[in-house]
Specification:
Mean pLDDT: 84
Strand content: under 5%
Shape: globular
Distance between the termini: 53 Å
Number of domains: 1
Length: 308
């Protein structure tokens, strides 16, 4: 059993970080730097992004993102998710973790790297009415959509399967608005109510759309090319992610909530993953060492450097 656990742990760490020991090369940059970062110990962002519910939140965010035809066109035309899905996953995780735990300079540089990639992502898409629109990954509307879906998914999943958030849901939405601004989001939501209203606005405006591209992406997310030993746990988390999506968006995605107690089952899976991984957050540990070296206060997120 110990050998199986060690193997499964290695596979899981490789999937999430690209490194079998759970410490990718870019974590070293988190330990460096000259300030506490945009958030810091005790922040809502550290609590949410340091929790295992992020594994389910990532699935949920990907599912919802497919509903915007512009975002889906960018993924379809430019993403290598079919050929290298884990590479795309590790790239997203790198940005998320770096912005959350690194100092402000490193967070800005990582966001600029993402922005440069977005510069070449452009094309056209057809909306639900058959009208052709140009798109660019740097369009404010698409950036806003991705940010809103991301924030909503991580908040919803942590609320279901994580510990209480310091400052509550409003604190997380307000803090993570800074990350959105780093990649070009204009006036992101700054409260849980604003977040819900912003998400609903896309649906009520008739922008969200289901078509064959969405169907293809959903099938891929349901059955990604993971190792066979990881698929039972992944299927439970996928069902949990679907259950966490409000009914009106599940209907748009053509998905149904399982009649089984998948929310409870997902919590059990996350507990098992926690047991396998242990208390090992290399990124948070690296950030804590940086902050201790600098002699920053434990609640440094209250004085995070402003965006300018």
């Amino acid at each position: 059993m110990s050998r199986f656990t060690d193997t499964w742990r290695s596979h899981l760490l490789s999937t999430l970080s690209g490194s079998s020991d759970g410490r990718p090369h870019w974590v070293d940059r988190i330990e460096e730097g000259s300030d506490a970062g945009f958030f810091g110990p005790g922040s809502a962002a550290w609590a949410v992004h340091g929790g295992l519910a992020t594994m389910v939140a990532g699935i949920r965010a990907l599912l919802l993102q497919t509903l915007h035809p512009g975002a889906m066109a960018g993924v379809h035309d430019w993403s290598r998710y079919r050929e290298d899905p884990l590479g795309r996953l590790s790239g997203t995780i790198q940005w998320l973790i770096t912005v959350t735990f690194a100092d402000t300079g490193t967070a800005r540089r990582e966001s600029a790297r993402v922005g440069k990639f977005h510069e070449r992502v452009a094309g056209t898409y057809t909306d639900a009415a058959g009208v052709v629109h140009p798109y660019s990954a740097g369009d404010p509307d698409l950036l806003s959509w991705v940010h809103i879906v991301f924030t909503d998914s991580f908040l919803a999943c942590h609320t279901l399967w994580g510990d209480p958030i310091p400052g509550g849901a409003d604190a997380y939405v307000r803090e993570w608005a800074q990350a959105g601004e780093l990649v070009g989001v204009l006036d992101p939501p700054r409260s849980a109510t604003e977040l819900t209203e912003a998400l609903s606005a896309y649906r009520l405006a008739g922008i969200l759309h289901y078509d064959e591209r969405v169907s293809e992406a959903v099938r891929f997310i349901r059955n990604p090319p993971l190792r066979r030993s990881m698929m039972p746990a992944y299927r439970v988390m996928f069902a949990g992610a679907v259950a966490s999506i409000p009914p009106e968006y599940r209907e748009l995605l053509g998905l149904r909530r399982s009649r089984l107690p998948v929310v409870t089952a997902t919590g059990l899976v996350l507990g098992a993953v926690r047991h396998v991984l242990g208390r090992t957050s290399t990124s948070e540990d690296a950030a804590s060492r940086r902050i201790a070296r600098l002699g920053e206060p434990a609640s440094s997120h209250e004085g995070a450097a402003p965006l300018s």
